[in-house]
Structure to design on (1393 residues):
């Protein structure tokens, strides 16, 4: 819309016509106070804090509901307005308990801040305040009515943002009260958005209540470790007996690609990292079959000895390596490099939850075809085939809802179930659970009556969409992905997203944790430069995939296994005998089913305890930062380097740290050794010699940027905290060979909103929420 | 059954059929009913609106907005259907006139609704009565059914090709629902929370369509305007205040009742002549001229004409026509407390100043009246009310603030008489009962 | 099993209302351009039939209008005539607002308290009467006024009110 010019406090400002005055002022640096106004949510005009004087209007006006108009003359801080705001605060405080010293929100409370600003501290009121006892609404949500100022933010975010509508307003007058949907409990997605959005301490979270004061915490912004959407989360940390403990996960600064949003896992399920079941000492199996805790030195030597012996006697190809969907790109990259270059094996794989390979191949090196997560919030049209984002990709679900609500995006859904997002859909076509492939070819113009009229009109509608984003789940694989992508490419400017499950599922794929593909989806046969880079042990033939490795182990063909951050034994139900004759090394946080069968178990740091990068399922690359700290554990990166070193491998060839500078192996920098070395990057940017340690992920990121197709993003973007998008398979890589007879080794995680693979078992809060939800589901069922 | 009163000074227009059995449709027709609507239908929308403007009829719901002007704001073209909404929520304390209209002359409301619909191009009208008026809904529903039976409502009314539906219902106990936008919310089956304005109902109203909302008395007046002729109607009243109005006299007058008098009729005359003066020959202390939300007038301030402009000049408002008469025995603190108690109870709770302001006014006045007041309370009460005024989301906040300010301003001495632990000087009860212990 | 079961609202089977009322509801929802508009009348009529708005009544009405139970509760708790707990057979509502107050409304209320032995929003042990102090009921010129259920009684004195209460009492025992 055209711009209009207005005058605010004597300053001329310009804003597009139709902009709300409060927004136009904020953009111009004039802050107008507000409780009830919240960008993106419906207007309330209830708190009356934003009152301003507009010339020619008889009364003060609410800036939160007034659109700017040409020539408008506005005053926002006159004595009259200050008095209005002061009295408004006096009125709120009249019934507000002044329990700030014990209130969770104390120190980050909008009411406190405004009272301070407008000097409404003194009370004119001496009568008794209305009181009600605090209530617990769910394992995670508490409500303190007297503190509530009735700004209705929570109700709106639940209704409009979440489309859950678990919160309402009941009674009227001063008895008005926010109420949960299931009598005295919340039956909802337990996302905690209501807590985050509450400007005061009326809604508080069980994980944080009465634990600490905001100013006693350190805040680190990092990436949530639970699903493939990769939300940014700000962790509040407090010193504990054996390190730094996470006491809060929230999203107050809204700076990440998830804006306001966090789901139940992002907000509460960080507590696995504080679980008493965490391993903190290396374990080595003794002759009698029992585990013994040993020193790091002993453990690493045992691993190195084991692997070297196997490699040197039976050949590298008798070792299998399994990487992780929850460790960093640097670690996964290093792991496969270690496997190929140090162990000399091609048997490398990871838990695949979707078919990224077919997806990348189908796009055939086209640029600009990957939909970033942010595209899902702005695209004018979206086709979602398969998956249930509400359960599996909560941020995607949030973005789609927001997009429909705010931009009237046309959302088309094809699924075998009536998923919750169909409520936002313009069209929904239900198909059989085994018909996804057929539907993909139907879209491309196949048998036009197979799916009925609604499908045909859906296809007709899609054909008119110039800027479609096609999102599909793991229901589509192999050639069917290609069929779908081909259909998409027949329309102008279509973008695509392929949904995988874990925080770094996509990164693991991009980093070449495949038996037949190198980093950047380069076929082993086309290794070229990478072969020289990795050294003479580089295996020329593709190796075995995850399932085959276990089969081979059972046959005695795999003598050693190195399993990092994964629990295939539990997931695939592998019988213990299978690994009887295999030397198994497991790196993990917990004594998982797989770890229980290991010969050596190395306790590792969680994603919240290390630095590096991860790539979400849309290809958005983000930096993770070391937040928590746990005595005893090591990062996977450090462990791989140490094992290589103990095997006698030249670590400078494995990690290209500071050319010519002798490594100190991190000792002199202690706990900081894993920290992203911004200084070093700065040095490099200025052509000075970086002095990285071999444990510094930045050294690996340099190499990744150099050799992995699509990772040629601008490093400064990443350091500035944004999320550059990676686009693997640049034009030069079109030669990827079709994976002809690739066995279907894709196993979706089957996670719901309240589960998170292996990690979820160790989150007490998540378990508690699950039990609560189960109880509700049972009650609802009978 | 409410008693009807009569006085020679009255000019019976809206009340002309009261007590005549006009709730029966045939009797209504006999008394000249359903003629105006036929005439309106012949002449068409522009003419109707021009007549309405010429009549100088101003809304009887309280604000006194010129009705013809309001109707003219409705856009001619609209994608969404347009509606007429009759506000029969009548809840302003001191007001009971719509009660009589629904009881004695329901067809006038139906006829007025159809005319309003013709004027703006609506095909549907709603008549919303307050929840307590259930027995009046029964009467209203019968009237509507009779009108349908006669072909005055439904498809092709009066044999024309014009369709018009009318639905009536009640609320369920909420004063705020009388506010026009809260009324629409309520009719849509929601909480009675007012809407953000603009857009105004004439543009975006019920179900998102342009809507004309008028008070029941306003609507019941409409057929009479066409029956009498707009000029003749206008001439009955005072300048810019056409016609008559139903005044509900209550409180300490000798002959309480609903009187229909020309706009601009003298208030003092109304009390002393029409309503027979103060009961038992007592002294007049004060008058609340237009329902509980209008600022109180001292006995010395009542020699004024009862129309929107003159009462406004006297520092109060004509409001809803509820004239509450207070004699010398009334404790003004107690009266203020009862007034505020009402607004506290009825605040919808949406906005801070009204929700919290009325709550604290009530608490403070309760304590104050019971004899536990402090000197600074008096100023605090006024401070609080003044800081609510003009800053609330809807006019209910003003309705609570305005009378409060007037009570403190005009009866400060009575407030001071309650200080120093002295219980209410007018109390018929001992102090401990006042405090409620 | 999905644990995000956000629609707790159970589908009621059949109807808990009388056939007449159920038929009336079926008609009501067709009267308005939007079904939901029937909500407040439905709540009132359900309350008239059952005496109060029980969980089952709320669930059925929510279902009929395709609303959530929460939504219905949000609305009903706003209106002062709607209740979720039973009241007496005859609900005596005494207006004490200004016009009635000036004419002895408060005294009338206290008189009822004494006569019935109950206070505001209480019910007699035999379930015959409940008492409520209410805001203006639109009978100001005929004050003081009392409503018993939906019936108006005006120009009252304690004595005439006693007679009226006695009449209701005898009605209750029939
Ligand atoms: C709090 C509040 C309560 C109101 N109650 C009523 C009412 O009960 N009846 C009524 O007709 N108007 C009431 N009004 C006025 C209406 O908002 C509206 O102005 C009126 O119905 C318009 O009709 P009119 O132009 O015919 O007066 C109320 C206004 C407010 C702010
Ligand atoms: S002034 Fe505010 S709280 Fe009061 S009734 Fe209006 S909107 Fe509701
Ligand atoms: S922000 Fe405008 S009224 Fe609350």
């Amino acid at each position: 819309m055209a711009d209009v010019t207005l005058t605010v406090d004597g300053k001329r400002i310009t804003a597009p016509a139709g902009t709300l005055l409060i927004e136009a002022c904020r953009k111009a640096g004039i802050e107008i106070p507000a409780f009830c106004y919240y960008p993106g949510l419906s207007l309330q005009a209830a708190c009356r804090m934003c009152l301003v004087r507009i010339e020619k209007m008889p009364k003060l006006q609410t800036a939160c509901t007034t659109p700017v108009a040409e020539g408008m003359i506005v005053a926002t801080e006159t004595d009259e307005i200050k008095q209005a705001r002061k009295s408004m605060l006096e009125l709120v405080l009249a019934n507000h308990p002044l329990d700030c010293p014990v209130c969770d929100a104390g120190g980050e409370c909008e009411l406190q801040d405004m009272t301070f600003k407008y000097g409404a501290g003194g009370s004119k009121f001496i009568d008794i305040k209305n009181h009600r006892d605090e209530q617990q609404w769910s394992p995670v949500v508490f409500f303190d009515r007297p503190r509530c100022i009735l700004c209705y933010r929570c109700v709106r975010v639940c209704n409009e943002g979440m489309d859950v509508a678990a919160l309402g307003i009941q009674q009227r007058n001063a008895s008005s009260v926010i109420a949960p949907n299931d009598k005295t409990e919340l039956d909802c997605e337990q996302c905690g958005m209501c807590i985050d959005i509450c400007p005061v301490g009326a809604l508080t979270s069980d994980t944080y209540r009465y634990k600490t004061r905001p100013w006693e915490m350190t805040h680190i912004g990092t990436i949530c470790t639970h699903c493939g959407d990769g939300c940014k989360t700000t962790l509040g940390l407090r010193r504990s007996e054996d390190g730094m403990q996470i006491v809060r996960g929230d999203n107050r600064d809204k700076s990440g690609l998830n804006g306001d949003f966090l789901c139940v896992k992002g907000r509460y399920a960080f507590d696995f990292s504080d679980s008493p079941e965490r391993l903190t000492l290396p374990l080595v199996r003794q002759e009698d079959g029992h585990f013994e805790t040993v020193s790091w030195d002993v453990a690493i030597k045992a691993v190195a000895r084991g692997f070297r012996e196997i490699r040197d006697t039976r050949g590298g190809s008798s070792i299998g390596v399994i990487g992780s969907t929850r460790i960093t790109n640097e670690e996964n990259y290093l792991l496969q490099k270690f496997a190929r270059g140090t162990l000399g094996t091609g048997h490398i794989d990871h838990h695949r939850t979707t078919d990224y390979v077919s997806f990348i191949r189908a796009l055939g090196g086209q640029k600009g075809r990957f939909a970033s997560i942010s595209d899902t919030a702005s695209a004018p049209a979206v086709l979602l085939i398969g998956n249930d984002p509400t359960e599996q990709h909560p941020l995607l679900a949030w973005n789609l809802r927001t997009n429909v609500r705010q931009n009237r995006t046309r959302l088309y859904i094809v699924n075998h179930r009536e998923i919750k997002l169909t409520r936002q859909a313009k069209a929904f076509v239900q198909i059989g659970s085994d018909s996804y492939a057929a539907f993909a070819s139907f879209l491309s113009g196949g048998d036009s009556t197979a799916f009925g009229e609604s499908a045909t009109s859906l296809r007709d509608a899609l054909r008119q969409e110039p800027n479609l984003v096609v999102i599909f789940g793991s229901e589509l694989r192999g050639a069917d992905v290609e069929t779908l992508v081909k259909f998409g490419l027949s329309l102008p400017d279509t973008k695509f997203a392929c949904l995988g499950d874990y925080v770094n599922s996509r990164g693991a794929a991009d980093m070449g944790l495949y038996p037949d593909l190198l980093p950047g989806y380069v076929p082993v046969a086309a290794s070229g430069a990478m072969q020289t880079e990795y050294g003479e042990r580089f295996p020329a033939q593709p190796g075995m995939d995850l399932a085959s490795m276990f089969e081979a182990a059972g046959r005695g063909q795999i003598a050693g296994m190195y399993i990092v951050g994964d629990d295939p034994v539990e997931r695939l139900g592998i019988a213990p005998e299978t690994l009887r004759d295999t030397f198994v090394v497991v790196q993990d946080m917990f004594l998982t089913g797989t770890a229980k069968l290991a010969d050596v178990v190395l306790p590792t740091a969680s994603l919240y305890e290390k630095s590096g990068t991860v790539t979400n399922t849309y290809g958005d690359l983000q930096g993770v930062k070391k937040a928590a700290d746990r005595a005893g554990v090591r990062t996977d990166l450090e462990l791989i380097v140490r094992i290589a070193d103990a095997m006698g491998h030249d670590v400078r060839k494995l990690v290209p740290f500071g050319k010519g500078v002798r490594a100190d192996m991190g000792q002199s920098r202690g706990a900081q050794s894993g920290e992203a070395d911004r200084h070093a990057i700065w040095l490099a940017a200025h052509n000075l010699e970086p002095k990285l340690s071999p444990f510094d992920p930045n050294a690996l990121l340099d190499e990744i940027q150099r050799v992995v197709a699509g990772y040629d993003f601008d490093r400064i973007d990443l350091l500035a905290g944004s999320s550059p998008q990676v686009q693997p398979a640049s034009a030069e890589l079109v030669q990827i060979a079709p994976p002809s007879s690739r066995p279907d080794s894709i196993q979706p995680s089957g996670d719901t909103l309240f589960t998170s693979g292996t990690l979820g078992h160790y989150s007490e809060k998540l378990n508690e929420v699950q039990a609560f939800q189960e109880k509700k589901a049972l009650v609802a069922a009978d | 059954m409410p008693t009807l009163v009569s006085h020679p000074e009255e000019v019976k227009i809206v009340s002309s059929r009261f007590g005549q059995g006009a709730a029966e449709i045939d009797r209504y027709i006999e008394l000249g009913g359903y003629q105006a609507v036929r005439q309106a239908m012949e002449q068409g929308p522009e003419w109707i609106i021009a007549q309405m403007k010429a009549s100088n009829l101003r809304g009887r719901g309280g604000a006194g907005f010129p009705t013809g002007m309001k109707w003219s704001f409705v856009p001619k073209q609209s994608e969404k259907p347009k509606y007429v909404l009759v506000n029969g929520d009548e809840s302003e304390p001191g007001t009971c006139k719509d009660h009589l209209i629904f009881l004695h002359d329901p067809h006038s409301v139906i006829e007025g609704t159809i005319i309003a619909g013709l004027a703006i191009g609506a095909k549907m009208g709603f008549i919303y009565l307050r929840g307590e008026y259930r027995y009046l809904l029964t009467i209203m529903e019968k009237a509507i059914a009779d009108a349908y039976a006669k072909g005055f409502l439904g498809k092709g009314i009066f044999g024309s090709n014009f369709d018009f539906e009318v639905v009536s219902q009640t609320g369920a106990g909420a004063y705020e629902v009388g506010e026009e936008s809260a009324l629409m919310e309520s009719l849509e089956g929601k909480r009675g929370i007012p809407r953000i304005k603009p857009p105004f109902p004439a543009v975006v109203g019920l179900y998102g369509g342009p809507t004309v909302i008028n008070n029941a008395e306003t609507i019941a007046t409409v057929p009479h305007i066409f029956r009498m002729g707009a000029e003749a109607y206008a001439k009955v009243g005072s300048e810019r205040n056409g016609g008559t109005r139903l005044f509900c006299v209550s409180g300490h007058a000798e002959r309480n009742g609903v009187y229909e008098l020309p706009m601009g009729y003298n208030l003092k005359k109304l009390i002393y002549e029409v309503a027979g003066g103060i009961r038992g020959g007592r002294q007049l202390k004060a008058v609340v001229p237009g329902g509980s939300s209008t600022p109180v007038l001292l006995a010395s301030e009542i020699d004024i004409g009862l129309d929107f402009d003159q009462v406004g000049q006297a520092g109060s408002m004509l409001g809803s026509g509820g004239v509450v008469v207070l004699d010398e025995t009334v404790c003004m603190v107690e009266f203020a407390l009862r007034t505020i108690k009402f607004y506290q109870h009825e605040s919808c709770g949406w906005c801070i100043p009204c929700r919290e302001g009325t709550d604290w006014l009530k608490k403070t006045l309760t304590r104050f009246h019971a004899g536990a007041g402090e000197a600074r309370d008096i100023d605090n009460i006024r401070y609080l009310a003044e800081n609510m005024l003009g800053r609330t989301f809807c006019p209910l906040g003003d309705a609570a603030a305005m009378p409060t300010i007037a009570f403190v301003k005009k009866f400060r001495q009575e407030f001071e008489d309650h200080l120093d632990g002295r219980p209410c000087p007018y109390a018929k009860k001992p102090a401990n009962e006042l405090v409620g212990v | 099993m999905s644990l995000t079961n956000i629609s707790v609202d159970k589908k009621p089977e059949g109807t808990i209302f009388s056939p007449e009322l159920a038929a009336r509801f079926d008609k009501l929802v067709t009267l308005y351009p939007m079904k939901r508009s029937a909500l407040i009348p439905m709540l009132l009529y359900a309350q008239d039939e059952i005496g109060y708005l029980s969980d089952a009544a709320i669930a059925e009405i929510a279902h009929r209008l395709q609303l959530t139970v929460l939504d219905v509760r949000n609305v009903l708790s706003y209106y002062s005539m709607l209740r979720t707990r039973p009241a007496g057979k005859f609900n005596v509502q005494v207006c004490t607002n200004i016009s009635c107050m000036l004419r002895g409304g408060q005294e009338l209320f206290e008189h009822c308290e004494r006569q019935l032995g109950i206070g505001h929003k209480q019910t007699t042990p035999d379930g015959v009467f409940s008492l409520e102090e209410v805001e203006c009921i639109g009978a100001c010129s005929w004050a003081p006024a009392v409503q018993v259920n939906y019936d108006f009684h005006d120009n009252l004195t304690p004595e005439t009110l006693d007679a009226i209460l006695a009449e209701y009492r005898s009605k209750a025992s029939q």
Summary: Helices of chain C lie at 19-31, 39-50, 55-65, 69-76, 98-102, 105-116, 158-173. Chain C has a mean pLDDT of 94.
